[in-house]
Design goal:
The complex is a heterodimer.
Chain A: H1 16-31, H2 47-54, H3 97-100, H4 108-120, H5 127-141, H6 150-161, E1 166-167, H7 188-204, E2 213-214, H8 238-255, E3 264-269, E4 276-279, H9 286-297, E5 318-321, E6 333-335, E7 341-343
Parallel strand pairs in A: 3-5
Antiparallel strand pairs in A: 1-2, 3-4, 5-6, 6-7
Helix pairs in contact in A: 1-2, 4-5, 5-6
Chain B: H1 2-7, H2 12-19, H3 25-31, H4 36-45, E1 48-51, H5 59-65, E2 71-75, H6 95-103, E3 110-114, H7 120-129, E4 135-139, E5 142-145, H8 146-154, H9 169-172, E6 194-198, E7 201-203, E8 222-224, H10 234-243, E9 249-251, H11 258-267, E10 273-275, H12 286-297, E11 303-305, H13 320-323, E12 328-330, H14 339-346, E13 354-358, H15 362-372, E14 378-382, H16 396-405, E15 411-416, H17 421-430, E16 436-441, H18 456-465, E17 471-473, H19 480-489, E18 495-499, H20 505-514, E19 520-524, H21 530-534, E20 545-549, H22 555-564, E21 568-573, E22 591-596, E23 609-611
Parallel strand pairs in B: 1-2, 2-3, 3-4, 4-6, 5-7, 6-8, 8-9, 9-10, 10-11, 11-12, 12-13, 13-14, 14-15, 15-16, 16-17, 17-18, 18-19, 19-20
Antiparallel strand pairs in B: 20-22, 21-22, 21-23
Helix pairs in contact in B: 2-4, 6-7, 7-8, 10-11, 11-12, 14-15, 15-16, 16-17, 17-18, 18-19, 19-20
Classes of the chains: A alpha+beta, B alpha/beta.
């Protein structure tokens, strides 16, 4: 698709257009298409980044663009857009004038290259890798009302050259799990990125959000299997997620091998000669888990045992079994990732 | 001109009769704006009321305006609540609505709720208060248990013979009238025709809710309990089906095994819509043979779903006879059917108009769909492997094949591994009739893997080609450019979902300025901030709602907006650090949800929601 024709209205926007036109002249020469670039907001925007690289596609993707149709009218809310005329009307409300007419310094070249760098450097980059390229643009291009991002660009450029992905506070991976989910039942593979991003999110709270924070965890090098789980992505209803998880659990049992749905943890009972492993995903309530464990360990004589557990604990993966149901001396506990012994049952099963 | 002049002299009954032909609530809304007398006639004659945002108005005012309301549709939480972005006690309670209607003596016959919190208490009140309740449809709701369903099933009420309203002939078949004392065990009048539970989170109380349908209940037309997790009394179910001869739609849950299904189908060959439970049996058994012959008698089935949790692929051939007539097929929960089996099944389904399937069908399977299902209008391809260890997926190839093979396609939801601009451009050329186009790349910011470009051009082609596009969801690497295209071309767009997209405020501005018909805009994790938010504050009164989370909007801007626009509720949701009056205005807002309202800030907002 050939890029939209965005026109610079020479006189229409006052002195602002001078800088804008010079910027767009640059981009036009980049494009080499000889098209008049119209810029409805009086700014040269980053879209020319894409325009310049899209020219290769224009051969096979000719779509006739109606000049009139490309003008974006800004009208009163709710009004139908009247016939578009070549004179773009800025907001009738006029609130926007000052800030938007403020020109962008065409250091977008820097942005162009950083965008391209981010996306070109690998085939099929994992999500975490691509997101590394974007937020520095986001973070630098728009603090409140600040359209002069030259300084910020330089900043991000130097930081980028250090080769680390950065995140502004809220953009990018929002891996903070909602309350009630944090920390108790993540799989071991997810733990790394989850923890790191929690730290990151905490670190950015309360401080200026305009700074780009250096990402401590090495997102660029995380293995594909340990792709960080973004809250709410992919956008599937919770009901569907839960239902399919149950199905995949059934499938695993049928196949007899641990599939993506299985979550095995070691269970030890005080005084038992050996430990067992259970798949947490095959249960849906604490009740089920504890009755299953009870059955599993019923062959052992239940006695009073005070011995402390086995050495070599993995994160979150050991429980000592004590039998709640029968009112004997046993309760279920587990060690969470902070190394604290917790009573099973406090946190919602999910 | 002349006709309009004459219309004023028509008696109101005539106007009312004319308005009867207006089915859509939008048409009725338009008509009621014409003049005072039309407003009056319309409001007294409106029976079906649609409330897109339950907090835009209070129930008392709805009832006051539409006293003859018989059917109410309510929507509660914002759409992103589906994806765990809205804390669970945010709101959306139906109880106040039921209470108000009960107090006012509304003759409620139908209640349809989406994304609302429905307590057992509400269901009990509903059952007690509305003797003519015929239809209850709950979609993506939560807060109730099977005990609440038992209350609906029992539907205790007494109606003296004289006041009995004769409804549809269907509803009256087999009706038994008993004047008796009110006890749950005694059969009473029961009008319930439809109980439809779609994808709700229901707590199972191990009660026998299905057995609570009294023997006199013979009016059921539609029963869908596929989302229930617990066991059901199979004998009660079979008896229920046997005595409800008008049953057209039956969707079972996973706890109903194949042998029960076979018995049910023997009793209900008139079914039009069937949802199986689990589908596992020995294909060499007697039961399976009986199932095959039962299925062959079900010549009316046009819609099939289910295959929940357990599926034995070798039992699938039993349903091949149904497939020939199917117009709607939902296999999106059948994760245990392999793509080869799916393909075999699809080969029989040449009349399909709607297909919901998992991505394990693969691009090749979609090719088979494309060559077989020429009548296809709606396709949804869901991801089967949510935890991301990368097994079967679909790519742009599948989508292109579908677009080439299915010219009537107008609605798509497509979860895929990757997408290219070239593919989207091709799809746009092949299918200019899209009304809904939702694309979701599993990696939310993945570029076009061939050119490494953002997907701006692809989506641009879609909006330019599909002039009737009403709903769009974007994903993949996207810059401000795609929003420029959307603003320029998507003139009919009503709902837009944005995630991890854009570079600057301009993106959001393009959309707000260009899309005149925009009703719902939801944005997450995108760099849109205060400038975009405050550019055109009046716009938000033309929209139902705006959601922005993990964007660059600050508290100060939200306050400014709230101050300027008193008829908007600007809700700030901060779960982690509570925002209050002492917070710095420059602090970014984690989640903001604003919506137009006639009734000011809601009173049931929890602690972490602050209406500015």
């Amino acid at each position: 698709m050939s890029p939209p024709l965005m026109g610079v209205e020479g006189g229409g926007q006052g002195n602002v257009s001078l800088m804008a036109s010079s910027a767009s002249m640059d981009s036009i020469s980049q494009k080499g298409l000889g098209l008049k670039e119209r810029n409805y907001l009086g700014l040269s925007d980053c879209s020319s980044v894409d325009s310049s690289t899209v020219s290769s596609l224009s051969e096979e993707n000719k779509i006739n663009l109606n000049l009139k149709a490309t003008e974006l009218r800004l009208g009163l809310p709710g009004s139908q857009s009247p016939e578009r005329d070549p004179e773009p009307n800025l907001l009738s409300s006029g609130k926007l004038d000052e800030k938007l007419l403020f020109p962008l310094i065409p250091s977008k070249d820097g942005i162009c290259s950083s965008v391209q760098k981010a996306v070109v450097s690998g085939n099929k980059r994992g999500y975490s890798d691509t997101i590394g390229g974007l937020p520095e643009m986001k973070g630098s291009m728009f603090s409140e009302g600040n359209w002069m991002f030259n300084a910020a660009v330089t900043d991000s450029e130097t930081q980028k050259s250090a080769g680390q992905a950065k995140f502004s506070g809220n953009a990018g991976m929002n891996v903070m799990l909602p309350s009630g989910l944090s920390g108790t039942q993540p799989t071991t593979v997810k733990d790394g990125p989850t923890k790191a991003s929690q730290e990151r999110a905490h670190a950015t709270n309360g401080t200026s959000h305009n700074h780009n924070k250096v990402n401590g965890s090495n997102n660029n090098t995380s293995p594909p299997a340990a792709k960080a789980q973004v809250v709410g992505w992919p956008p599937i209803r919770a009901y569907r997620k839960n239902t399919l998880a149950t199905s995949s659990k059934n499938n695993d049992e049928v196949d007899g091998k641990p599939g993506p749905g299985a979550l095995f943890v070691k269970v030890s009972m005080d005084g038992a000669p050996y430990l067992r492993k259970v798949d947490l995903r095959s249960y849906s309530t604490y009740q089920e888990l504890s009755s299953a464990l009870e059955k599993m360990f019923s062959c052992f004589t239940l006695g009073q045992c005070e011995s402390q557990g086995a050495p070599g604990r993995e994160m979150l993966s050991e429980s000592k079994l004590r039998d709640l149901l029968h009112g004997s001396e046993y309760v279920l506990t587990y060690e969470d990732k902070d190394g604290d012994w917790m009573l099973v049952g406090d946190v919602p099963w999910e | 001109m002349c006709l309009a002049y004459m219309m004023n002299y028509f008696p109101e009954e005539v106007l009312e009769h004319v308005f009867d032909f207006l089915a859509s609530h939008r048409d009725r809304n338009a008509v009621s704006l014409v003049c005072q007398s039309w407003y009056r006639v319309e409001r007294f004659s409106r029976e079906k009321v649609f409330i897109g945002n339950c907090y835009a108005i209070i129930p008392e005012r709805v009832i006051a305006r539409f006293p003859r309301v018989r059917s109410l549709t309510l929507k509660g939480k914002p759409h992103f609540a589906d994806f765990n972005l809205v804390p669970s006690d945010w709101g959306g309670f139906v109880l106040p609505w039921i209470e108000a209607m009960a107090r006012s003596g509304v003759n409620l016959e139908e209640l349809r709720l989406k994304r609302m919190v429905v307590s057992d208490e509400s269901l009990e009140l509903l059952a007690r208060s509305f003797p003519n309740l015929r239809s209850l449809v709950l979609v993506s709701c939560e807060g109730f248990t099977t005990d609440g369903l038992a209350a609906i099933a029992s539907n205790c009420s007494v109606t003296p013979l004289g006041e009995l309203a004769i409804g549809d002939a269907d509803a009256m078949v087999g009706l038994i009238l008993v004047l008796a004392m009110i006890t749950p065990k005694v059969a009473l009048t029961l009008f319930l025709m439809e109980l439809d539970l779609q994808e709700n989170e229901v707590e199972d109380c191990r009660g026998q809710w299905l057995s609570c349908f009294p023997d006199s209940c013979t009016s059921l037309v539609s029963l869908n309990f596929a989302c229930l997790k617990g066991e059901v009394n199979l004998a009660a179910l079979e008896r229920l089906v046997a005595r409800n001869h008008n049953l057209r739609s039956l969707r079972l849950n996973h706890a109903v095994p194949l042998d029960a299904l076979q018995k049910i189908l023997m009793q209900a060959p008139q079914l039009v819509d069937l949802g199986t439970g689990s589908y596992v049996h020995d294909p060499d058994s007697d039961t399976y043979n009986k199932l095959k012959s039962a299925v062959q008698k079900c010549t009316s089935i046009r819609s099939l779903s289910g295959f929940l949790e357990d599926v034995a692929p070798r039992c699938l051939p039993a349903i091949y006879p149904i497939c020939l007539n199917l117009t709607s097929l939902n296999l999106s929960y059948a994760s245990l059917i392999h793509s080869s089996e799916l393909i075999k099944l699809i080969h029989h389904c040449s009349q399909l108009q709607r297909l919901w399937i998992l991505d394990c069908i693969g691009d090749k399977g979609l090719g088979v769909v494309a060559s077989t299902c020429k009548e296809l209008q709606e396709l949804r391809v869901f991801p089967s492997d949510i935890y991301g260890v990368g097994s079967a997926v679909v790519t742009e190839e599948g989508l292109v094949a579908i677009s080439a093979g299915c010219p009537k396609l107008n609605s798509i939801l497509y979860f895929c591994q990757q997408m290219t601009n070239a593919a989207l451009i091709t799809v746009a050329k092949n299918c200019p009739n899209f009304i809904r186009f939702r694309l979701c790349t599993l990696n939310p910011t993945i570029p076009d893997p061939v050119t490494m470009q953002p997907l701006d051009e692809g989506f641009g082609a879609i909006v330019q080609s599909c002039k009737g596009l009403k709903r769009l969801s974007l994903s993949g690497l996207l810059t401000d450019q795609v929003f420029l295209y959307i603003g320029m071309y998507a003139e009919q767009l009503e709902m837009l979902s944005v995630a991890f997209a854009g570079n600057s405020d301009k993106g959001m501005l393009y959309v707000l300025n260009g899309c005149k018909k925009l009703k719902k805009l939801e944005i997450r994790d995108s760099p849109f901030g205060n400038v975009a938010l405050l550019a055109d504050v009046g716009k938000y009164e033309t929209m139902r709602s705006l959601w922005m989370s993990s964007c660059e909007v600050t508290l100060g801007a939200c306050k400014t907006l709230a101050k300027k626009m008193p008829r908007l509720n600007v809700e700030v949701i901060n779960e982690n650090d509570l925002i209050d009056a002492s917070s710095d205005d420059r602090q970014k807002v984690e989640k903001m949800y604003l919506y137009r309202t006639l009734v000011g800030p809601r009173e049931d907002a929890p602690e972490f929601v602050w209406t500015l």
